[in-house]
Amino acid sequence: MDIKSDIEIAQDTPMARISEVAADLGIPEDAVEQYGRFKAKIDPSVLTDPRFAGRPDGKLVLVTAMTPTPAGEGKTTVSVGLADGLRGIGANSVVALREPSLGPVFGLKGGATGGGRAQVMPMEDINLHFTGDFHAIGAANNLLAAMLDNHIRAGNVLGLDPRRITWRRVLDMNDRQLRSIVDGLGGPTNGVPREDGFDITVASEVMAVLCLAENITDLKERLSRIVVGYTADRRPVTCADLKAAGAMTALLKDALRPNLVQTLEHTPALIHGGPFANIAHGCNSVLATQMALKFGDYAVTEAGFGADLGAEKFFDIVCRTTGLAPNVVVLVATVRALKYHGGVAKSNLGMENLDALEVGLPNLVRHLSTITEVYGLPVVVAINAFPTDTPAELEAVERRCRGLGVDVALCRAWAEGGEGARALAEDVVRLCEKPSELRFSYDLEAPIEEKLDAICRRVYGADGVRLTAAARKQTTRLEDLGFGGLPICMAKTQSSLSDDPTLLGAPEGFTVTVRDLTVDAGAGFIVARTGSIMTMPGLPKSPAAERIDVDASGRITGLF
Predict the structure, then answer these.
(1) 163 tagged catalytic
(2) What are the tens digits of pLDDT across the range 21-64?
């Protein structure tokens, strides 16, 4: 029997008109700007519309995961399947997800919109350009870069030190060739020569700003606070100093509007923003989440990578900033990932191995304890089932979870869509009624090093944090400049709870080394870089782009 690819399933599934999806949610027609028949942008003003003033917000469900592996855990598939499953049991649900970056689409993943019978559509559009949000973010970022270099060439009255410029250009593609460059060559008419470089668009502070802004005024104010570099005497120079915030906001005014699409089962989906969780804060826009809460009884949202990255930042950054608090957390785990953390090679993950499974289970347990003991939230483990999982392996995972007093549900959304997530949906509804109060992993007013140490000890399970000499100086400087009270955004490998990607499972006896600290004053957090994490990824030896094609009729193939 032929098994259809994700893109074939999506292309063979009829879509409802997006006007019908919006009407089903109760979004007024005057707030819907259609992009063709199956996509639309929603005006954020509906959140303050007097017509909905008395409508209570729904329950917030955060989907996160154990430490990811090269085998893929299917967190987005579970998120989409759960939203469909909630609708299947009569609950009005909306899913809010990040937009895919072209970097992973053409590099490692192919598609990034769920899988099997649990996808969002139109998957080709969402994966390729969508409504142009990322292009607008790149244009705004690079406008600021152009105005910065033009200011230096035109006399540099702000006294920017070319050696202390922190603002880089961006491109939404994995292009390692552009990580470090020298530009401004060719004489005075072509600018001032200096070292420069590119980041991937999802690592831009403009992306973080857009995802954290609650309205267009907040967006402009945040853009104004962006630090682009320093003078020779270490005084910060901002976007406001360069008078760039207004023009940048003009480029971003449409991108600020969340995008409405649908799942294969026509559940409304808000896809908006896409910061990576290993180099940024890893969550879709606050506006999309707030909109999902306003128009759904259950809002399902996803945080990037494992709970040590996306979920930690959702709690410690997003929730602090907005007052959001999840009612329940869904922790995605797979038998394959557990065996990988137990030492099994990727090529052998399809074979039963109960011993390796037991060795890998502490990784899941560590993430569970973080959610329940550090953040104080109810949690349910979603075992995302793969065809190669054996009954004995699935039973072993369920037995460990139940032994810890944790709810666990088998999720078959990839194969069965919402029906395959019915048990998970029922657990989520029940746990949403359980009282809880979100706690944070550190005191916001603590010194920077104390906050770093708290994350490393309480979330990663480390023995503590070590700052390089350069990072220690940067810490002092940031505190002297008044940035010490900001939350921390850790830039760390997604492959391990530690800062060493080779340490699998639940490592102990390690220390996390922070090598560099910078401030994203517009986004409102301090970025702490560890290990060899890079803000411009590279393509793999055999990129997914080699398998993507389009035929004479315009039908795309190879997107996973």
Answers:
(1) no
(2) 999 999 999 999 999 999 999 999 999 999 888 888 999 999 99
305 is catalytic: yes
Concerning whether 277 is annotated as a catalytic residue, the answer is yes
Residue 131: which pLDDT band, with cuts at 50, 70 and 90?
very high
Q: What is the predicted pLDDT for the residue at 1?
A: 46
Give the residue-averaged pLDDT of 189-208: 95
Q: What is the average pLDDT score of the chain?
A: 96
Phi, psi at 255, each rounded to 5°: -65, -25
Q: What is the pLDDT of residue 2?
A: 61
Count of Cβ atoms closer than 10 Å to residue 395 Cβ = 11
Catalytic residue among 277, 299, 413, 423: 277
Please identify which of the residues 198, 305, 315, 440 carries the catalytic annotation.
305
Angle 518-524-527 (CA atoms, 0-180°, nearest 5)? 30
Residue 388 has pLDDT above 90, yes or no: yes
Residue matched to tokens 């017509």: 51
Is 414 catalytic? The answer is yes
Of 39, 41, 59, 75, catalytic: 75
The answer to whether the peptide bond before residue 326 is cis (omega within 30 degrees of 0) is no
Active site residue 167: no
* Confidence (pLDDT) at 104: 87
- CA terminus-to-terminus distance, the chain: 19
pLDDT of the residue at 280: 92
- Give me the catalytic one of 87, 98, 168, 225: 98
560 catalytic, yes or no?
Answer: no
Residue that is written with structure tokens 């949610």 in the block: 25
109 is catalytic: yes
E strand intervals along 277-350: 298-302, 328-333
- Going from the C-alpha of 557 to that of each of 6, 8, 19, 123, the distances in angstroms are 10, 8, 28, 11
> CB-based contacts of 39: which residues, under 8 Å, 6+ apart?
18, 122, 125, 130, 131, 259, 260, 261
Do 319 and 438 form a contact (C-beta atoms < 8 A)? yes
Q: Residue 459 and residue 528: Cα distance in Å, rounded?
A: 15
Q: How far apart are CA 221 and CA 249, in angstroms?
A: 10
Q: Considering 134, 414, 510, 560, which one is annotated as catalytic? A: 414
pLDDT at 223 over 70: yes
d(CA 522, CA 529): 18
Cα gap 499→236, rounded to integer Å: 30
In the residue annotation, 4 being an active-site residue is answered as no
